[in-house]
Amino acid sequence: MRQTTAFHLFLAFCLISPVACKPKPQAPVTVDSGYRQVMGTVIRILAVAEDRNRADQAIKAALNEISDIERRMSDYDPASMLSTVNQKAFETPIPVDDQLFQVLSAAMEYSRASDGAFDITIGPVVQLWRKARADGIAPNPEAIQTARRRVGYQNLILDADNKTVKFAKEGMALDLGGIAKGYAIDRAIEVLQDAGLAGGMVDIGGDLRCFGKPANHAAHWMIGLQDPASEKKILLKLKMDDRAVATSGDYRRFFIIDGQKHSHIVDPATADSAQELSSVTIIAPTAMGADALATAVSVLGKEKGIVLIETIEDVEAFLLNTNQTNGITKTTGAGQYIRN
Ligand code: AMP
Ligand code: MG
Predict the structure, then answer these.
(1) For residue 175, which ligand has an atom nearest its CA?
(2) pLDDT in tens, 212-269
(3) CB 75 near ligand 1, within 6 Å
(4) How far is the C-alpha of 310 from the C-alpha of 304, rounded, in Å?
(5) For residue 338, what is the DSSP state?
(6) Cα 264 to ligand 1 centre (Å)
(7) Cβ(274) to ligand 1 under 6 A?
(8) Which residues, other chains included, contact 17 with Cβ-Cβ below 8 Å and sequence gap of 6+?
(9) Which are the contacts of 77, defined by CB distance < 8 A and separation ≥ 6?
(10) Ligand 2 center to residue 121 CA distance, Å?
(11) N or C: more exposed end of the chain, with fewer CB within 10 A?
(12) What string of DSSP letters covers 109-157?
């Protein structure tokens, strides 16, 4: 009886609103944001949705979120929240917002996990090398040693109750270049998911994360891993459903002073470039994790890097040596992502 009543109600509703009863299953559309400038590199978002308008709105909101993060976490912008920390945190504890506090706390975890190979207090050394690069003159050894002594995540004091940051040593400076991109990608993905998209991908400078339905009705999200030796050659095709991938290395971002090649990644122990690996690709559930660990493994080198990644659940690595003849080294679970 109840069923009959329900059936009649259903019919009546059909007569009033035939469209609602015969929903045309719409194929999801993929909207491509194209490349835009952000965080000193480019961003591209793919949004998969039932309707174009929803996808457009979601892309707009995700781009706004990223600009917002950039405004707070850039160390190039003297007015950013991070710059305020760098200018004043030795004098007094500086209050920061939840997002920045979250990134700083996560960075501390990656420092501990990598035994200091990843260290956002690398700022003074990075600044020294940035200047050297601009001037074309290597920093003198004394300056390097002075900068190195200012580095040490143990001297970064985070107060979780008051959400403040304090430096225990004078001259300290934070640099989020090894982690902020990943964080921004994760936040943008969250915005796309909250907007009700069926799927999406956010790519900032080649680091990316994707979720849900793949673009253009493909069976999977597929990502090409570029050969460090040749921009046009794809070394591996990776199946990347609901995963993030980040690559660190000196193959595109390096500079030469006095005939010596320098990477933008610095070993906190020596205050000099990390040299051994030309490219490290990490696959992880979050872009922030992939980003920080890619930088960490670039510093640690092959042996220690593989050991670290093998201990972290759900995280895999592909390593390429500077000496190409050594080929690719990968963690035990990395093969599951390869689709050639
Ligand atoms: P990525 O491309 O993610 O490996 O990040 C490289 C950037 O991270 C550099 O340009 C620096 O801003 C910063 N950085 C360099 N060395 C380190 C390090 N040992 N730990 C954390 N961040 C670093
Ligand atoms: Mg990184």
Answers:
(1) 1
(2) 999 999 999 999 988 877 778 888 899 999 999 999 986 666 677 777 777 789 999 9
(3) no
(4) 10
(5) B
(6) 7
(7) no
(8) none
(9) 71, 83
(10) 14
(11) N
(12) HHHHHTTTSS-GGGHHHHHHHHHHHHHT-PPPHHHHHHHHHT--GGGEE
